[in-house]
Amino acid sequence: MYSPKGLRTAIDFGLAEASAALRDLDSAAEYYHKVVDAVPDHSKAVGALAQTEFLRHSRSRSNSKGSAVSRRILSLDSIEKLFLRALDCNPDDTQNLINFAQFMKTARNNLEGAKGLLYKATLLQPCNGGILGNYAAVLSKSGDLKRAEVWCQHPVSHVFAVVLI
Amino acid sequence: MLEIVLDSEPSHCQTLRWRGDLHRYMAEDKAAMAVYKRASDAMQDGGLVLHATLVVPCVATEQY
After folding, report:
1. CATH among 1.25.40.10, 1.10.510.10, 3.40.50.150, 3.40.50.300 for A93-165
2. Lower Cβ count inside 10 Å, N or C end of chain B?
3. How far does CA A52 lie from the centroid of its chain?
């Protein structure tokens, strides 16, 4: 049976996940922050918070009019710290590895970092075509065409890789 | 079954939470949101108390 605090956290996490699914990023961030404040080592919530804040950051940059938001947009440094904290809580969370790789690639232009994260994700889920395809795409973008070709020819990855490259 | 419980205990936070989880599992996000909000409101109103009908069957299962 849950304690009142545990139940409160579970409800807030549910609200955060449902808000994120409904693309209400501001509400999702609000609820994820509540969960992380209550349970600092909740790896799923920390990782989801990092990704949500990254999406809010990206949206604020593309939305020049700047819609009114309830919570301030976090800096890229703060978002990176959240991703690292999530990986510290659970180093084998493939979803977080993929999200962090996307952050590294688009926000930091750090293809080497993204490559390392996706490589680890491929080791954890060797039959996940989406991960293999993304890994091949990053290899290709960083000029490592020979290795990209090898990964594209992987029986699981080729469909996705052809689309992404 | 969750709906049956909620018919008799509409403010039972834990059951509401489970109902929300089930909605989310079924990708019914708007419904999940509504139920989680009900759970959140119920929690603020002290809706954590277990009704006897929810407790007794659990005790019976453990005994037999």
Report:
1. 1.25.40.10
2. C
3. 8
Residue B43: list chain A partners with CB under 8 A. Answer: 4, 7-8, 11
Whether B53 shows a pLDDT value over 80: the answer reads no
3-class DSSP assignment, residue A69:
coil
Residue with token string 């009908």? B53
Contact A32, A40 (CB under 8 A): no
Q: Is B21 on the interface with A (CB under 8 A)?
A: yes
Query: A8 at the B interface (CB within 8 A)?
Result: yes
* pLDDT over 50 (residue B59): no
Q: Do A18 and B13 touch (CB under 8 A)?
A: no
Would you say A71 and A33 are in contact if contact means Cβ atoms under 8 Å apart?
yes
Average pLDDT in the A108-126 region? 93
Model confidence pLDDT, tens digit, residues A120-136: 999 999 888 888 888 88
Average pLDDT over residues A77-106: 95
Determine, for residues B20 and A14 on separate chains, whether the beta-carbon distance falls below 8 Å: yes
CATH topology of domain A1-91: 1.25.40
Q: How far apart are CA A10 and CA A115, in angstroms?
A: 34
For the cut 90, the answer to whether the pLDDT of residue A80 exceeds it is: yes
Contacts of B59 in chain A (CB under 8 A): none
Q: Do A7 and B13 touch (CB under 8 A)?
A: yes
